Amino acid sequence: MKILVTGGAGYIGSFMTKMLLNEGYDVVVFDSLERGYRETVDSRSEFVKGDLRELSDASHLFVTRNIDAVMHFASYISVEESEKEPSKYYENNVLGSKNLFQTAYEAGVRNFIFSSSAAVYGNPEVIPIPEDHLTNPTSEYGKNKLEMENVLKSLRAKDPSISFVSLRYFNAAGASLDGTMGENHNPETHLIPLAIQSIVDDSGFSLYGTDYNTPDGTCIRDYIHVLDLCEAHLLALSKISKEPGGYVYNVGTGVGHSNREVLKIVEKVARRKLRLIEGARRMGDADRLVADPQKIKSDLGFSPKYSDLNTIVGTAWKWNAKKSQT
To answer: What residue ranges define each of the domains in the chain, with the CATH number in brackets?
Structure first.
């Protein structure tokens, strides 16, 4: 099979590309390089530079390539930024995705794996969150993801030959076990890499929000190691290859950790103390987001191997150390 990986020069996309290649798939990577890095793209793949917001770039992808399935990672990912620049997020995350799905469908592609998000739930009424929970996103980012889930559902309603899996990520984190690949967003907005960098730089770490409705006042999140997350994509691809349909799965562990708890693990791994600067909460952040992962476990046999906090933070620390040496 030939798999198109959009956003394949980014964090999760680059890991996914490597895993697909190691499993024997042919891979085409498409990325604008606006926030990705050409050097992270595995040399065994075919790389195409382009922007999904340009319909011609999207359609060109399928002209000479016989793509069997699309894994769509190309989106802006910051909840806070989405609140400040909603039109920018809509143009990239929604209109760009529609261009991709339209041109792929016209070229005969019928299999899609979509990177969705727990942000579609908003502030949940039930913890852990099942997939049939009310979707009421509190951020523009979450609204973008939900809209694209609905686009895929509509496409399948019109043409049942379309199969898709929407994977609702909780908090992707961590790095490769050998520290050679990791999280390198620009700008970086995620807790663990920011905390690690603050320790390395001996700079103050801004903890946004200490008045959430949680035991220690900070957000609670469900962390999933990037390697486990990519494994979920492989299982999803296998699912629609064998049982065509439309599926939605949470990708998490079912265990929540507060920001303060995560920061303590960072300090433990680094053997240094963070200098905390407590600030106001960020716009759009929910109090708690913890997955009910039973559906993906029972349907796909998903079993996270690396998603304990010590492994997540330990691999991220190793990646940061290797990165600083280059």
So the answer is: 2-172+223-251 (3.40.50.720), 174-221+254-325 (3.90.25.10)
